[in-house]
Every structure is written in C-alpha cells, then in structure tokens.
Amino acid sequence: MEALHPKGLSGRGIHVWRGDRHVLRGVDIDVLPGEVVHVSGPNGTGKTTLLRVLAGLLPAEEGHVGWRGRGIREERDEFNAEMAYLGHENALKGDLTSFENLRYSVGMRRVLDAIEIQNTLDHLGILRCRDLPARVLSAGQRRRLAMSRIMLLGASLWVLDEPFTNLDVAGVELFSSLIGDHVAAGGMVVLAAHQGLKVPGTHPRIAELN
Amino acid sequence: MWTWFHKLASPPHFYRIAGLTIPWFGWPALALILLGLYGGLVLAPMDYQQGEGFRIFYVHVPNAIMSMFVYSTMAIAAGIGLIWRMKLAHAVAAASAPLGAWFTFCALATGSLWGKPMWGTWWVWDARLTSELILLFLYLGYIALRSSIEDPQRADRASAVLALVGVINLPVIHYSVVWWNSLHQGSTMFNPGAMSIEMKWPALAMLLGFMLYYGAVLFERLRAEVIRRERNAAWLREELAR
Amino acid sequence: MHQTGLLAAGALLYARDLRLAFRRWEQVTQPVVFFLMVTTLFPLALSPDTAQLRQVAAGIVWVAALLSALLALEFMFRSDYEDGTLEQLVLSGQPLWWLSLVKAAAHWTVSGLPLVVTSPLVAASLAVPAGAQWTVVASLALGTGILSFLGAVGAGLTLGVRRGSVLLSLLVLPLTMPALIFGARAVDMAIMGDSPRGPLLLLAAMFILSLSLGPFATAASLKVSME
C-alpha cells in the first residue's frame, strides 16, 4: 500500500464504475486530524460515491482506503468504531421516538445513559421532540436528530453527505459550529455539500471532483 | 503458475485463447455425440426389460449429469469471482446458467418421454426427475435474480451468493427427495441395472461429447460476455479490427 | 467510552424490532389471517369429509404455514433498507453475521411464532387427532425457523429489486422443500399413530444447519445489496 497516512483517513487511486460509467477515476484524498475536507463538484460527479467508498460501504474496484495507516478492509471493526456516517437518509425509524431512536442506534455501538441523550437533543434544539415519534417531525428536525446520532457516537472521523439538507439558517450555523468544535478537539470531518462552507475556527480544505 | 492463471483471466488474453480453443472443443464434441448416438440408438442390444424405449437413456443420463456438473461449475466460478473479485469468473457463472438450465430441461423432457411408454403418463414423481425439477427451479431463480438487478457488479455478486447457497443445499435437497420417494414408491425406474460394456460405451461417448459441447458453447458465450463487459476498452477495438 | 458487547447489542436490536412490530400490530396478524384463510380453501376445494381431510391434513397445514411465512419474509430488511438504518447496522462495528442472526430471530418471533401458536387450531379443523398436535407444533416451529434463517439470505439479496417479493418466493421455495418433506412426513406419521422421531430429528438437524450457516450468507448478501 503506497503511502497511506499514519494518522488519518486516506484514499489512494480509487476507481469506481457504476455499470458503464467510470465514476471515480483514480481519486487520492487525505483527511487529517483537525481538518475539515469539503468534497465539492457538480451533481453527478460522484461525491456520494466517494463518501460511501471512504465509509467502507462501497468497495472500490481499484485502489485502497486506509485508516491510521492500515487498510479499512482488514481492520473493518476498528475503523467502524471510530467513524460516524451520515448519508442522504436520516437512518431513523419513524415509529420510534427521538429518544428511542438514539438509544437503539447509538446503543449498538456504545453504552450511554438517558442524561447524555437528553443533553444532546437539547444541544441540537429538539429536546421538545424527545417523546415524539420520528415520523411526525419536520424534515429539519429529523436532520437534527440524525446529527444528534453523529454527536453521540463519539467517533473521531465524521463522514457527512449533504448534512445541511432541509436545514434553516439557524440549523446551518449550528451544524457548522458543531463541525468546528469537533475538529478543534482533534477530530476529522469529510463532507460533501452544495453550498459554500463556513466553519468557525478553521478553513475547510476543498477537494474538487470533476 | 499463478501468473499463468492471472494472465488467462485477463479479458484480452482469454478472448484470444478462447477463439483458438473453440474448434478443438467443437468438432470432437460433434464426432463423439454422433458416435454415441449411433452406438446407443443403433448398435446397442435391446434391453430385455424395457425394450427399445430404453434407448432414451443414452440421451437422458448425459443431460442429467451435465445439469449437475454445470451447476457445480457455476457455483465454483461464482465463489472464485466473489472471493478473488475476478470478473471472468463471474462471466463463467453467468454464461453457464442458461446452458445448465437447458441441460436440465432436456433431462426432464427425455425423462418424460421415457416414462410415457413405461408408465402411461407424461410425468411421474420419480426421485431423480423430481430432483431435476427442483434443480431447474434453482437455475431459473438464479437467472431471474441476475436479470432483475440493474447494476452489473451487484448482479454478479448477488447471484454468486445465491449460487453458493444453492450448491450447499443441493445435496440436502437431493437426499430429501430420494428419501421421500422411497417411502411412497418402489425402486426408481431409471435404474438400468448391471450393464455390459457394449451397452455402456455409447453413454460414456455421449457424456464426453456433451462435456466438450459445453466447453465449446461456454467459451463462445464467454467471448460474447467479454465483448459486452469490455465494450469500451481499447484492446477490444484493436482486436475486432484485425 | 464503553463499547457495547455482542450480547447487549443483539438484545438491543431484538428489542427494537419487537417494539417496532408491536407498534404496527395489524401487520403482525396478517400472516396468521392468511394462514387461516388458505387452510379453509382446502376443505372448500376438496371435501368436508373428515376422514379424507385427515389424510391430507399434514400436507395442507405445512404448505399453508410455509406460504404464510413466505409472505412476511420480504419485510425482514425492507424498512431498514429504505430508511437507511441498515447501513448504520453494517457500520455499527458489531459483526454483521450476528446482527443478521438477531434480525432473523426477531422476524421469526413476529411472523413465525404466531403461525406456530395458531397451528393447533388449524390442525384441529382438519381433523388432526389431539395426539398429533405436539408434532404439528414442533415441526412447524422448526420449519418456520428454517424459513426465517434461510430465507433471510433471499430477503437480503432482493432488497431494492423491482417485483422483489415474487422473486424472493422463487428463490426461497426450492430451498425449503427438504424441510417440507420431513416436516409434513413427521405430522403424517403422528396422525397415523407412529413415532415421528426420525423426521423430526432430521428437521432439527436442518434447523441447526440453517441457524449456523444462514447468518453468514445473509451478511454477505446484505453487503452486496449495500453497493
């Protein structure tokens, strides 16, 4: 494996075909501690595909993805324990309340108590949705609930695909500051977003896909 | 040795080698099948129990054996494709499935033809025939799964999992059916008993002929698969221009 | 940060699925109603004569139960696939084969177990003698279990596929035929007064096989469907 970065996430020579389309052509990318990497590019250039490859959901036909210098295929469980992925879908069960959603999804990875869940819901501004089933929440509230999960997982690497979808201005600011706090504490974020990204406290590094 | 294998598995090399090998499979296959048919339908003596109708055995049994051989080949190829991510292996599985299904269908049809003069009906729930029928269902399921998934890589990998699950279940299915049949009927009708060598060799000739036929048609279909999968590659344009 | 252990994660997933199922109570009862209705078809189609029904009862109960359980199979992973929860399970850091096992077990509890519980009723309606009821329940418990663990592979492979439910039945039915052979035979023997030990033991062996190998194949099929 050529030169995988020892401290963060690296992708080397990633090629992905979707049927006939050569979607990713030899992509190289590094995400280091304390960094926000903004994957940008027009629609259809493969941003989601790249993020899914980095998260380990989609195997690349050629190339490798490494975490702390070791391939993620070999160290799958260790990698998953330190990574949090937010996709287009919120990954919420409509029939469970906000509280239950977090308890079950985060509980699969680590032990957590009710106080933590409540504090996070409060931080994301949806404490009053605590006992409401997710299906009655607005789109913006559901996105915030999904972000609560990312916060609670306690992962060092965040892979976020269009995190600001359905958010109002206050929501965008909130998420941006959460991202800023995370990298300030030594975490890493790689995300795809349409809008220009403003993270307080750091300049996101832009990776263009074309 | 591995480099030779990897070389063979690379599409351009395989395409060329297959093109050369096909006639070496095809003509002997034809010769052996004609020989076997002549031996079985004309030369072999009449069976004292089943009369002339027994001659169908020479066509039925090779078909049945091939149907199972092709399924195992398909499953092994699928497994190789899944574990070592070899595209050619997936192509072998994809190309083999319709061939195997046809062998199975022919085995069922000839079995039915055999049964008619013996038992008076077009179908009997004989152990072997029922097993063949379930095998046909497995083939059809595999083909259906492949055709209903649009993404080619996912179709390859999903059908590979199915083929592996199927091949593990195959012995279980076969022995269950044999057990079930033994409860309700006597011995299976497809047991020709002890056979002398002059009755056996045409069957062996047919089997060998069928195997070579499978090889020839498989390689022909594989070349077509390679063309389809690599249709945008540069090497293919050069090759076809020759 | 204290990582969740294997058993705890499994218990959590199992509890989640059960909780979700009971919030959609009507969906849990549908296979049972189907079971009852299909069984009713046979006396209507054949004859109400109890002696005749008793002869074919084993087959009817088993085929009806199999088809009813098959109906519910496609929902094992469907909703998780559609709302993105399945991805999170794959990324949870827990072994996927274990999560597949738990999902199949939860599915059996919600879809298979109700059928098993209803089966004595159905069997009695087909003139199955009381002495054979135990065999009916035991064989169907094993049979629906086999369907859940083996069928999970099919459910995983057909996620997001058009007309997936029909395809799922085509794929899974041939694999369940051995269980049908031995299960129906066991019930038949019990009805005739013989001991059904032989077929039941074989059925149990098949169950153990599908329980131990099924989850690994299911995990593979889920990873394929994620691509």
Task: Please tell me about this protein's structure.
The complex is a heterotrimer of chains A (210), B (242) and C (227). Chain A is of the alpha/beta class and 210 residues long. Chain A has two domains: 1-82 and 158-210, P-loop containing nucleotide triphosphate hydrolases (Rossmann fold); 90-154. Chain A contains six helices and nine strands. In chain A, the strands form two sheets. In chain A, strands 6-7-8-3-9 form a five-stranded parallel β-sheet, with helices on both faces. In chain A, strands 2-1-4-5 form a four-stranded antiparallel β-sheet, covered by helices on one side. In chain A, α3 (98-107) packs across α4, α3 runs parallel beside α5 (139-153) and α4 (114-123) crosses α5. The model of chain A has no long low-confidence stretch (mean pLDDT 89). With 242 residues, chain B is mostly helical. Chain B has one domain: Four Helix Bundle (Hemerythrin (Met), subunit A). The mean pLDDT of chain B is 84. Chain C is an all-alpha fold and 227 residues long. Chain C has helices at 6-23, 25-45, 50-73, 75-83, 85-90, 96-125, 133-157, 164-192, 197-226. Chain C starts with 5 loop residues before the first helix and ends with a helix. The mean pLDDT of chain C is 93. Chains in contact: A-B, A-C, B-C. Chains A and C meet through α2 and α3 of A and α1, α4 and α5 of C.
